[in-house]
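Re: weekly structure request thread

Next one in the queue (88 aa):
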Amino acid sequence: MIFKPQSFHGEPPVVETENQNEELLETAVARALAVSQGIDATRITVTASENTIFLSGSLSTQEEIDRAIEITLAVPGVQRITHDLHVD
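Done, posted below.
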């Protein structure tokens, strides 16, 4: 097999992220939840749309849900939160 360098009309391909700020915000929230004490963030999905964060998943107690919301709102750039978190 011969592998040629990738190109698009003679130019190297450029991968652009459409909503880089949203991805950065999602990452920041996910990281904040992951390192927080008292929350099992492995069952939480974080999605950003502009400055709004949507959390979905399940946690063990209502206190964990409240804490996840509190942590999310403390992340710089988060202006609003919507969630579909439930106790499992």
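Helices lie at 20-35, 62-73. The chain has one domain: 20-87.
Next request, please.
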